[in-house]
Amino acid sequence: MNTHKNARLTVSGRALLVQRILEEGLRPVEVAQSQGVSVRTAYKWLNRYRVEGKEGLQDRSSRPKFCPHTLPEKCQEQVLELRRQRKTYRQISQDLKVGHSTVGRLLSRNGLNRLAYLEPPPPVIRYEYSQPGGLLHLDIKKLGRFNKPGHRVTRDRLKGRSYHVGWEYAHVAIDDNSRVAHS
Length: 183
What we know:
Radius of gyration: 34 Å
Largest sheet: 3 strands, antiparallel
Order of helices and strands: HHHHHHEHEE
Distance between the termini: 53 Å
Structural class: alpha+beta
Shape: extended
Helix content: 25-40%
Low-confidence stretches: none
Number of domains: 3
Number of strands: 3
C-alpha cells in the first residue's frame, strides 16, 4: 500500500509508537499526543502488535475477504460461455436472471466486454518486393510558402496573409524491399 505524504503513522511510526509504550514505559495517552494521533489509534496498534507481532504493524488491504453477493462460479462460467456464443449483455442477463450491470462488470473483468475481443485480429501480411530497388513508392507533398508570419502569430486574420508567394514540393521515394526512404 502507498501511504500518503501527510500520514500520521507509517509502518516505522507505528513501531516507534509501540516501542515507546512497551520499552520506554510511556503511557499510551502521552505517546498518542506526541505522535499526533488519538488514544484509540495508539491502543489499536498496540493490540495488533501484541497479537500479531511486527507483521501486525503492516498496512492491510481494505478489500473484504468475502462478499455474499458475488455470483457463484458456475453462473460466472455460464455468462462467459454465453458471451462466447456472441450473445449481448441483455440476452445474457435475461437468460440467467442476472443484472445487466453485473454481466457487464464480469465481462469487462475477463476481457470479453466487446464482441471484437472474441476473435483475435488477423495477422498483418506484409508485402515485400524481392529485389532491392526494383519497386519504389513515390509521393509528392505540396507545401505552401509564406513571406511573413500568419494570423496565428499576429492574431490578425486580415493583415497576416501571404499572397502570390508560391509553393514548395517535397518528393519522397521509399524502396519496397529495404524500406529505405529518401526525400
